[in-house]
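FORM 7B - TANDEM STRUCTURE REPORT

SECTION 1: FIRST PROTEIN
SEQUENCE AND TOKENS:
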Amino acid sequence: MADDILPLSNAFADATEAEWLAAVDKALKGKGIDSITRHTADGLDVRPLYRESDFPSATEPLGTPGVAPYLRGPTAAPDAYLPWDIRQAFTHPDPATTNAEILRDLERGVSSVELTLDPTGETGVQVTDLATLTTVLKGVNATIAPVALDHTRDAGFDAAELLIEWAQAQDDASALKLDVNLDPLGALARTGGLDTSLEETFERLAHTLATLTTHLPGTGHLRIDARMVHEAGGSDAQELGALIASAVDTLRRLGPDADLAALAPHITFSLALDANYGLGVAKLRAARRLWARCLELLEVAPVPMRIQATTSARMLTRYDAWTNMLRCTTAAFAGAIGGADIVTVRPFNSALGIPEELGRRIARNTQIIAMEESHLGRVADPAGGAWFTESFAEDLANTAWTEFQQIEKEGGFASSLLAGALQSRVATVRDARAKDIAKRKVPITGVSEFPLLEEIAAPVADTVKPKPAPAAPGMAETCTPLLPIHLAAPFEALRDTAAAAKKEPAIFLATLGPVAEHSGRADFARNLFAAGGLAAKEPPVVPKSAAELAAGYKASGCHIAVICGSDTRYPDEAEAAAAALKAAGARHIWLAGKFEAPGIDSNIFMGCDVLHTLTLAQAELGLSQ
């Protein structure tokens, strides 16, 4: 074999952009390149082609990695052994079980621990005092493996004080790697309330920060968390705008005596990443630009933005949960390529209940494979200079800055929440996305597209009944919470209804003509109705007449039917087929396509409201949600 590189490209003439556009126009039959331009929930264009003219990467306008203002990440030389922190979240209510899970995962590649604490045990580890926290952390060496807190039900002061007390009981508290992650405004957004007024809350925050500075100076103090905006159905720009607004409002409320320069390195910023890794990478890059601009306006010396990326919970599905492995892998890829300092991958089965060993193992191994086999962390800022990534990140940052300015006009993050303004904008985006999901313009693999009616369920941990907990205190500040959603929830509710039926619900595929003619639309109909838990039944042999079609329908035991055939056959046979099916007792007849005729009650086609169709089909079958 020759050692030199074969000059394969020399066999082709250089092509100009004009020639490429002409070829695209021909392929699209004159529709133009704009017809394949996609639009995000923020209204931003994702074009099919990006070039040097979109972002002058050759001049390195964002500087280099590791150089202030750190727009391309904190370092030019990633750690060869741990380029990012593999942080695993633990949520099992029982402290002893959680401890066993932590030790097992640390032995198998996890590099840091995140404890989701909940005194009630409903949404996390039931830690109520120092003894239970000590049980959770027994055998954990926090000088090697950082321990972080994730507060789901409140501002986290009680948990933070327990962690501080635990730390001070260790041999060398100053060497511990801890992230207390206090976030009062995030708690207000997530839960809809604070048990003390904003003024009292921030007085307590200032006191706790002073304690940390004195006794645990190396600890991560604040976490500015905007994941709740994403999980509530918001857009990327809304999440980023809320992130920056929350950070600015938090620093503002700490008062004029707060040392922002000393506090800035102790802040962690949390964002969610979904399965669209291209937009995810751009989101992380946009976040750095936004925070660098804020530090500049605050007259604080540039420091690297410490980002924790967590795979999205709203994208996970209960049905065909195995597909969540792919979703989480692409999100983790975005975190690695986008330069997140900490990446947390949710277990693929977390939407079903408490994850067990398989879910946690896949979550950690997803990152280990990305790091140690795919070498995603070997290169500093691998996405740097990519024309699409950089130009889209700039568009996203500008849109997020507009959202930030709007929140500031509303009085800041807390005031916007208390007035319900931010929640209203998030709801608008959420509702628009829900309509696209209903029409499968935003498909959900395994649920709205390619559902499996006979799937193998993913395992979860046994249900644990938490110990009785003290009643939660009353709320002094309240707002409408940004409650999490699951994108697949409407379809999954239909599947639940179908699964609860005494007899498997089904629809009859009334096929017209030979298999070659009707198979495409029959497959389309089968896939569509399966998204609502309806099995498809077909005649044992291809019907040659309306009478044979009606006989096959009666034999199937179905009560509804869908006619599937070609556009050329519909004018001659669809009406007669519908009449025969109605005479045989069909309660409702759909037709795959847009052809209309007497006896055809509804149509299904690409872009139709699938959720409405399935709801109607279940109603015709006498099912109720």
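SECTION 2: SECOND PROTEIN
SEQUENCE AND TOKENS:
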Amino acid sequence: MGNDSLKKSSQNASENEDSNQLFLNSVARRRNFAIISHPDAGKTTLTEKLLLYGGAIQQAGAVKARGEQRKVTSDWMELEKQRGISITSTVLQFDYQDFTINLLDTPGHQDFSEDTYRTLAAADNAVMLEDAAKGLEPQTRKLFEVCRMRNIPIFTFINKMDRPGQEPLSLLDEIEAELGLMTWAVNWPIGSGEYFRGVIDRRTKEVSIFTKADRGKEAAEKCFLLNDPRLKELVENELLEKALEELELLDEAGSGMDQDLIHAGELTPVFFGSAMTNFGVSPFLNAFLEMAQGPVGRLTEKGTVDPLEPNFSGFVFKLQANMDPRHRDRVAFIRVCTGRFEKDMIVSHARTGKTIRLSRPQKLFGKDRAVVDDAYPGDIIGLNNPGMFAIGDTLYTGNRLEYEGIPCFSPEIFSWLRNPNPSAFKNFRKGVNELREEGAVQILYDRDQAKRDPILAAVGQLQLEVVQHRLENEYGVQTILEPMSFQVARWVDGGWPVLEQVGRIFNCKIVQDAWLRPVLLFKNEWNLNQLLEDHPKLHLSAVAPVVSGVEPLSL
């Protein structure tokens, strides 16, 4: 009997050891990243080509699909297909080589930057995409600052090298001067525009020569060592000599390669290529997976939690309604932070204190989903959301913890949203509440509760158009937008008691947000500065503080 017990104990120990090793291996092979860029830099095209090289799709769609061409995989919303732009974040998970990749595709349009801010909260790495002709652009700079706030490692892909553009050395200088970010070119272009011939890998001294493929197909690549005599037949001598001279300059004066500085967000590896023609995409993907950091710890009220902690935990960074119009579903996007997620597991909900069974978890690939049995730190899973989740919510097993919340950023345009058909109020209310929950737009309310019309507050006009479009197409409600003449919003530090002490104020409108906090709306920065001069003890914030444990107001 003693021998049987010892044997069983030994077997259990062996199974636990195997399980632990599986967990460690699964976490080690995860890579998670978001792509950030200015509109029209080619972000959606690069996303498609990464999926193509990863074997997740067989043919990439052009950004503006025509005729029989595929629509891009990452753009699922009808309005996205009509306009040829990404206006909502999606998640694309696929396997490549020995890695499981979670690619967080974000909107490129500046009107949807708040969705991108939230998505970056779930990212471990960021790929900064630049147009070789335009260099750094305003939206890229804004998103870079969000990455810097979160110490996210940044990998730079300079796109459209097959078109006339700036000198590569000038592009590196601009990144270093304007972003204060050291650069290290992983590969270097041979020629540009119509004379773009390929890239030289600085580490291996290999030259990758590319031949154009049919539109949307994977390009054929040929690799040669720098001293291979066949190169002279494929590349003009003056182009190759110029590239080698520039590399010599970089070796003498540029930064050195340092993995620790990359992971600290202080040095960016730089890659050159052309997503549309597949030049440089495969070398970029391979090098990125080698250099990128795996899942990292996330900050909670108790400090940073190691992703190798055995208990499961994760947070909601995005909500999306009606990804499948046939089922009117609502999906919560969860970033797995620690432990192993398992189908049907019971978790605690930090904000409400309730316990929830997670019975239908989904692996996401754009709008396509499949039931998933398990997930690991770095993965993104989708959960059906019957109204119990809010952005920033923490789910966990074991001892209670709560991840730091995701703040709201200051909107810049405001409009009354009118419902001209009283009989449609029920659907109007449902649509407004669900779109607010998923962060499609911020909702403000007049202090007079008798007024049922909400105020839409957004970063850009296109956000408001999307809300109207979705209310009509997903909820069957036609609405009217009445613009308001305000451009600046600020939250009052200390809330209503502080505002009451200040007394009567002029040249601004006082409203409240979904958490009943006072928000001041100003017509311009001058009015804001005038108020602060008149009331120097009044402190206002452009970023709304995170609210924990409080249910937001519904319409």
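SECTION 3: OBSERVATIONS ON SECOND PROTEIN
Residues 60-77, 79-89 have pLDDT under 50 and may be disordered.
The first helix runs from residue 2 to 28.

SECTION 4: SIGNATURE
Preparer initials: ____
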